[in-house]
Amino acid sequence: MEWFDLTVVTGSLPEFWRGLWMTLHLTGIALIIGFGFAVPLSIARVSKNPWVSAPVRAYTYFFRGTPMLVQLLLVYYGIGQSEWMQQMWEAGNPFWLLFRDAYFCALLAFSLNTCAYQLEMFAGAIRNTPNGEVEAAKAMGMTRSTALRRIILPSALRRALPPFSNEVILMLQGSAIASAVTLVDLTGAARNVYSRHYAPFEAFIFAGLLYLVVTFVLVGLFRVAENRWLAHLQPRRSASDAKKN
Amino acid sequence: MKKVLLLSALLALSSFGLSAKEWTEIRMASEGAYPPFNETGSDGALKGFDIDIGNALCTEMKAKCTWVKQEWDGMIPALIARKFDAIVASMSITEERKAKVDFTNKYYASPVVLIAKTGSPLRPELASLKGRKVAVQRGTVSDNFATKYWAGKGVEIVRYAKQDEAYLDLKSGRVDATFADYWEAYGGFLTKPEGSGYSIAGDQYFGKNAEERAVIGEGIGIAVRKKDQDLKAQLNKALAALRTSGKYDEIRKKYFPMDIYGN
Is the pLDDT reported for residue A239 higher than 90? Predict the structure, then answer.
């Protein structure tokens, strides 16, 4: 195969593995942080009190309305250029020094971005909670917060599972922009290999394959999760169907 | 014997036929992010020393030239994919690149330098840079050099898509130094207000042995596809003509007070 020189890939395998690992933990941690904030914020988002819901709405409006790359560049290069920030760095302020680190900047931008998407997803699911479930909770004498905790949230989060799996996969692939701020993620590794060997096919096809494999595994995991937590929403199988399995 | 003669005559004829092809339309590519050699003007058009040289070559060859703007790290693949015919983008002539493309003779010389805060004790040597972060532009000669001689030996190499971003991070203190092409640093940083307080740490570096010189390169040339030997010859001829006619120095003076061609 003249157009595909396998030695380019085999010679750079450690770089690709390191890049893959970077991609995985960067997106993984960002998703977890995003989720942690998205759940409480989604409750604020559906609040009838405009003082509570409006700020959350403004936040999601900004972060869903601008590209993640722009957000990342703002956090990394934008903040780094301010005189004040540079003074803080020179003074060795441990909190602001975090912003000097490319990994932290990427994590911050990714978390803020995915949190905005996740919280709108969850808010939508909360709004779509069947009235019957809410009324039943009330009839049982549950307070609003108990109903939220025991009925509405578990039900909404389950129903949000399919769109959530999409968000996870979009974040995995969206994290490819991390290489714009010097992080050597999977795409960054491919770009390094590409520029070293002038071999675009080899570098990017292999990186693409790795993304594909990870996506495939994630899709499989979410299918298992959906079968487990969304089983009650699936059409009931007849006895003969059940036997087949 | 006769057959051999005939064959060689045929070969000579055919190669003559090939070299006789005059290029009258040439698509030239540059990056547009490497001032003062090539940059993007406020109107979006390319300008700079490379562009002026390219246009002067075209006038000399009586060819019609069009300019294509191309990102640096896709430059050589795009040339091979025939998106354009020549790269006039301050590209160093290196052994690695010669495996993929052909170069004309150099049109200026190009050492590499380490840029750090003025008065910094850092030097472009492994011992001096141990434990430090050095910024380079991905896919450049300085990247190749740093990767080959410093990476994995205690020097952290931080790669950027654009040299401008490396300067930003040098200024903000995210890296200790940047290792770059001398001319790039000269025009794009050191002579600009942003570069005040920063200077060359050590001296211009040309490589201390043949192996290092092969990585740093023999100067800056115009890259063409390997099969376009006729274009290469045409460009070399025009380049020599610019040198002797004084047109080259006329353009050079617009950008630099000193000689940049070297020997």
Answer: no
